[in-house]
C-alpha cells in the first residue's frame, strides 16, 4: 500500500511538472511560448483559467490564422504558461490576450436546447455558444520571425484587472466579464526568455526532444 501510494504521488508530481505535449512532427518544427500572470494587491498570482473565466494568447500565424495555445497553470510558481508546438517557420504576432467568459444567460439557453447539463469547460479557441471573448490588445504587438527547429518566447506579460462581480455570489449573467476600462498591462517584457529557461529542464521523452531545440540556459 505504501509503495502504491508513493507511485501515485510520483505520477501526480510528474504530471504537474511536465505538461502534455506532442513530439516534433519533423526536425523543422518549432515551438512558441508565453508567460502571463495577474497582479493583485501588489503580488503576482496565477490568472484563473476555468470554464467561467479564462485567458489565452491572441496570436496570428504566417497566413493570418489564429494559433491555438495549450495552457499550463501549475508551473513557474506564480504565472501561467502557454505554448504551441509543431509550428512551421514564419512570422507570428502576439496582438494581446483573450479573456473568455461564460454568459450565464447563453449557458442556460444552451442547456435548455441541448439538455446538456455537463460542467462547462475552459476552451478559449472553440467558440462555444455560451462563451464571450474579450480582446485586450497590447499597445505594441510583438512579432517573432520564427526560425525552423527552435523554441522561442514572446516574453512575459502581467495584467491587472477585475471582474464585474465575484463569481461566487454574483447574480448577473455577465458576472465573470472583465471590466474593460479597468484593465491594464502593468508589466510587459517582450521576447524575454525566462519561460524558456524555466521549461528547459522538462524531461519527459517528448519534452527532451523539444528542449533539444531550446536555445535558453536552464534557471
How can the largest sheet be summarized?
A: 6 strands, mixed
Q: What is the strand content?
A: 35-45%
Oligomer: single chain
Overall SS class: alpha+beta
Q: What is the number of helices?
A: 4
Q: What general form does the structure show?
A: globular
| Number of DSSP strand runs | 9
Question: What is the CA-CA span between the terminal residues?
Answer: 36 Å
Helical content stands at 10-25%
Order of helices and strands: HEEEEEEHEEEHH
Mean pLDDT: 89
Rounded to the nearest angstrom, the radius of gyration is 19 Å
Low-confidence stretches: 1-16
In short:
By secondary structure, the protein is α+β, with helices and mostly antiparallel strands. It has helices at residues 2-17, 104-114, 194-199, 205-211, and strands at residues 30-40, 43-45, 53-60, 70-72, 80-87, 90-102, 131-146, 151-160, 184-190. The strands form two sheets. Strands 1, 2, 4, 5, 8 and 9 form a six-stranded mixed sheet that branches. Strands 3-6-7 form a three-stranded antiparallel sheet.
Description:
It is a single chain. This protein has 219 residues and is of the alpha+beta class. The protein is built from four helices and nine strands; from the N terminus they run H-E-E-E-E-E-E-H-E-E-E-H-H. The protein has helices at residues 2-17, 104-114, 194-199, 205-211; strands at residues 30-40, 43-45, 53-60, 70-72, 80-87, 90-102, 131-146, 151-160, 184-190. The strands form two sheets. Strands 1, 2, 4, 5, 8 and 9 form a six-stranded mixed β-sheet that branches. Strands 3-6-7 form a three-stranded antiparallel β-sheet. A hairpin with a 7-residue loop joins strand 4 and strand 5 (80-87). Residues 1-16 have low confidence and may be disordered.
Amino acid at each position: 500500500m505504501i509503495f502504491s501510494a508513493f507511485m501515485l504521488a510520483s505520477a501526480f508530481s510528474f504530471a504537474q511538472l511536465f505538461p502534455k505535449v506532442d513530439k516534433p512532427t519533423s526536425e523543422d518544427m518549432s515551438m512558441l511560448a508565453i508567460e502571463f500572470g495577474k497582479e493583485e494587491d501588489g503580488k503576482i498570482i496565477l490568472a484563473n483559467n476555468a470554464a467561467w473565466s479564462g485567458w489565452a494568447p491572441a496570436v496570428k500565424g504566417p497566413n493570418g490564422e489564429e494559433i491555438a495555445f495549450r495552457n499550463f497553470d501549475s508551473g513557474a510558481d506564480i504565472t501561467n504558461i502557454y505554448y504551441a508546438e509543431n509550428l512551421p517557420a514564419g512570422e507570428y504576432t502576439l496582438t494581446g490576450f483573450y479573456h473568455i467568459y461564460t454568459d450565464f444567460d447563453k449557458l442556460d439557453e444552451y442547456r435548455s436546447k441541448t439538455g446538456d447539463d455537463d460542467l462547462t469547460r475552459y476552451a478559449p479557441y472553440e467558440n462555444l455558444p455560451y462563451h464571450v471573448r474579450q480582446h485586450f490588445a497590447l499597445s505594441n504587438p510583438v512579432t517573432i520571425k520564427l526560425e525552423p527547429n527552435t523554441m522561442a518566447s514572446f516574453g512575459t506579460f502581467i495584467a491587472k484587472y477585475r471582474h464585474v462581480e465575484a463569481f461566487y455570489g454574483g447574480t448577473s449573467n455577465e458576472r465573470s466579464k472583465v471590466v474593460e476600462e479597468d484593465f491594464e498591462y502593468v508589466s510587459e517584457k517582450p521576447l524575454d526568455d525566462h519561460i524558456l529557461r524555466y521549461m528547459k529542464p522538462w524531461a519527459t521523452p517528448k519534452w527532451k526532444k523539444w528542449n533539444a531545440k531550446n536555445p535558453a540556459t536552464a534557471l
